[in-house]
Amino acid sequence: VAHETRRTIIDGRSNPWAWGLIFAVVIAGPIVEEVVYRVSLQSAVRKLTGGAWPAVIATSAIFCLMHWSIIPDGSRHQLAALFALSVAMGAAFERTRAIAAPIVMHAAFNLVNVAIAMAG
Predict the structure, then answer these.
(1) Which of 33, 22, 1 has its CA nearest to residue 113?
(2) Which is it for the CA torsion 9, 112, 52, 34, positive or negative?
(3) Single pTM value for the model
């Protein structure tokens, strides 16, 4: 969870808007992002390249670039973990051809980050 989002969640535990933000981060965000990145982009790149792995790698790179601005400057190393997660989600989508697997993976990742933020 990005620095500012995490701060909002931590500071607003009793605020209903913070719980709306948690819903957006854990449920809505993963659904929207996985439809955009896996169903749309990854599938389009796969058609262009004819291969699953070029599509997974290209989509994962774009996924990381799109998250660049929400990761604090001192934490850019987190992009490597985000890239690995994206590759795993892309591979799960390619293997199953179902969007549910990457959505659950993405939601679980975000849920763990929110739980860590709230516990800390």
Answers:
(1) 1
(2) negative
(3) 0.90
